[in-house]
Design brief:
The protein is of the alpha+beta class. Helices cover 40% and strands 26% of the residues. Strands 1-2 form a two-stranded parallel ribbon. The longest helix is centred in the middle third of the chain and has 16 residues.
Amino acid sequence: MDKTAIYCRLSKEDEDKIEYGEESESIQNQKMILTEFAAKNGFMIYDIYIDDADIIGLNHKALLK
């Protein structure tokens, strides 16, 4: 069985939800779709990574500097 990791990225539309303590529907949907894909295709999920860096004050452009 092959191992894989899942990477979910926050959509701009869901940024407000995170600020109010709710989980992003975008991230929930990505996790569900990718977990189902992995199961159907014989992958063992090693880890799930969530990218919501803009919400915690990290900006991609700032990280590139």
